[in-house]
Amino acid sequence: MMSGLDIATATLHARLPETLHYQGEPTEWVRVTRPGLSLHSFLEGPCFDDDGALWLVDVPYGRLFRIGPEGDWDVAHRYDGEPHGLASLGSGRFAIADYAKGLLRFDAGTGAIETICSKTNTEAFRGVADITRAPNGDLWFTDPGRTSLSDPTGRLFRLAAGASAPQLVLANIPYPNGVALSPDGAFVYVAATRANAVWRLLADAPDPVWPMTGTYIQLSGGLGPDGLACHPSGLLAVAHAQAGRAFLFNDIGDPLAVIKTPEGRWTTAVRFTPDGSALCIVEAETGSVYKFDVNPYLQNTEVL
Fold first, then answer.
1. What's the farthest any 2 CA atoms get from each other in the chain?
2. What is the pLDDT of residues 48-66, one digit of tens each?
3. Are 192 and 224 spatial neighbours (Cβ–Cβ below 8 Å)?
4. Which one is the CATH code of 6-297: 1.25.40.10, 2.40.10.120, 2.120.10.30, 1.10.760.10?
5. What are the pLDDT digits (tens) for 104-159?
6. 167: Cβ–Cβ under 8 A, 6 or more apart, which residues?
7. List of residues 6+ apart from 152 with CB closer than 8 A
8. How far apart (Å, rounded) are the C-alpha atoms in residues 109 and 59?
9. CB 49 within 8 A of CB 273
10. Would the pTM of this model clear 0.85, i.e. be above it?
11. Cβ atoms within 10 Å, residue 286
12. Which of 4, 44, 50, 111 is the most buried (most CB within 10 A)?
């Protein structure tokens, strides 16, 4: 880390009410990923709708939460799945990255869920984790399954706007997780969780087979980077899983701030508010959303 790195603490924005804590038996997802624990929820995938409301997914229990402007929680939908990530498609529609079912399309107005794609060629996905929508409408999503450094075969896919089948972009990632694009859509950032790194590649690389890819950010401690978010100015936010913190980097990858969550260490995801003034940080251990003012970091940042 460079000298002069700011160390700050986020403030609580909203916490899952106890009335919405799951009371049933642990699911298979909980038994495998959090052995011996009974989770009240596991929050991921923050995404804002057209009205500025914040949506979250509850991975093991198939719930989609909507948080209103005053911090009030609503179970907007519940289904038999394992949603990990959300991407807004506009007009009250979302793409869902579902670990068990693949890519889904959800209509908040009708509650309808339909499958976008559940496999590549004839093979089912290993277990998709996160998704983002490019400026041109393409959907980029990660497919980690249970990959790691001992099996670095996690995959990154791109579903071009209007296409029916996804394109395999990378197949050598030790647990690909969060994914984000630069403001102009030129660069793709991928969280290689089990390598504790953020990779970067060109969205439209000229390479004939695999795009040239490099380590953009190398972290240490915790589990590794989870969710990613890119600000219109080029700032990159990284949630550091099991470390109780998020990082803020400038548009060339230099660290600006480490932002701690006051309670809990399961920092899973990040998202900038629609007006770009704040960063939302999701902390799954306590079921909380924290906020951090990013305005002081915008004045010297250039768009990529």
1. 53
2. 999 999 999 999 999 999 9
3. yes
4. 2.120.10.30
5. 999 999 999 999 999 998 899 999 999 999 999 999 999 999 999 999 999 999 99
6. 157, 158, 159, 160
7. 172, 173, 174, 194, 195
8. 21
9. no
10. yes
11. 18
12. 44
User: 178-235, pLDDT tens digit by residue?
Assistant: 999 999 999 999 999 999 999 999 999 999 899 999 999 999 999 999 999 999 999 9
Tokens of 224: 């590794």
Burial category of 12 from C-beta neighbours within 10 Å (exposed 0-12, middle 13-18, buried 19 and up): middle
Q: What is the pLDDT of residue 164?
A: 87
- Which pLDDT does position 70 carry in this prediction? 81
Check if the beta carbon of residue 242 is closer than 8 Å to that of residue 226.
Answer: no
**Alpha-helix residue ranges (DSSP H) falling in 3-64:** 28-33
Residue 302 reports pLDDT greater than 50: no
3-state DSSP helix/strand/coil percent for the chain, to nearest 5?
Answer: 5, 50, 45
Cα 104 from chain centroid (whole Å): 16
DSSP secondary structure, 66-118, as one string = EE-TTS-EEEEEE-SS-EEEEEEEETTEEEEEETTTEEEEEETTT--EEEEES
Q: Tell me how far apart the alpha carbons of residues 153 and 176 are, in angstroms, rounded to a whole number.
A: 9
Written as one letter, the residue type at 87 is A
Q: Which residue(s) pair with 289 in the sheet?
A: 14, 282
Distances (CA, A) of 85 to 25, 95, 178, 194, 240: 23, 8, 9, 19, 16
pLDDT in tens, 13-41: 999 999 999 999 999 999 998 998 899 99
In this structure, are residues 211 and 173 in contact, taking their beta carbons and an 8 Å threshold? no
Strand 255-260 to 63-67 pairing: unpaired
Q: Which amino acid is at 26?
A: P
User: Is the per-residue pLDDT at 2 higher than 60?
Assistant: no
Alpha-carbon distance of 98 to 84, in angstroms, equals 6
- Count of CA atoms in the C-beta half-sphere (13 A) of 197: 13
